[in-house]
Write a structure and sequence with these properties.
The strands form three sheets. The chain has a two-stranded antiparallel ribbon with strand order 1-2. It has a two-stranded antiparallel sheet with strand order 3-4. A two-stranded antiparallel sheet has the order 5-6. α1 crosses α2, α3 packs antiparallel against α4 and α4 runs antiparallel to α5. The protein starts with a helix and ends with a helix. It has 168 residues and is α+β, with helices and mostly antiparallel strands. It has five helices and six strands.
Amino acid sequence: RTEYGYELLDLMAEGVSPEDALEQLLAKDENALRRQIGVIGIDGNSAQHTGNHSSWAGHRRGATYVVQGNSLVGPEVVDAVAETFEASEGTHRQLADRLIEALNRGHVLGGDTRHGETQSAAVIVADPRPNMARRQDGLTVQINVCEHPDPVGEMRRIYDTISETLGF
């Protein structure tokens, strides 16, 4: 449910903490146990929810990121995502580029247990600071690949096409 992103950002813009914002949205969601959601505010405060599934579910957080998932092959997936993201810290790469690289690292380690089925992936980067986002709504990047046999690879293709076109 990608609407969570907008709803979380709206609540946080009103001054609601990430924890309270996520709690409010989960309380209204009849499928909350199937969700994996992470949010981190510009101040570094974060909240996560991994839901529940028949295979491994869990999360990890650091000073500048959150990573979570359910239906995963094991904890090595979130560990690989976190370690790859941490390794790119301090580089001059765009945040979305670093996020896609980290997601791909978890994906190649087995990622989601539903391999062979059509899956989805998304990366949304928002920056509420004046004149820092590329769009009026505060979003810098929004890529949502739904129902694709290789959603992370498709997300990378879209990002690379956009970044080449826009020169970032």
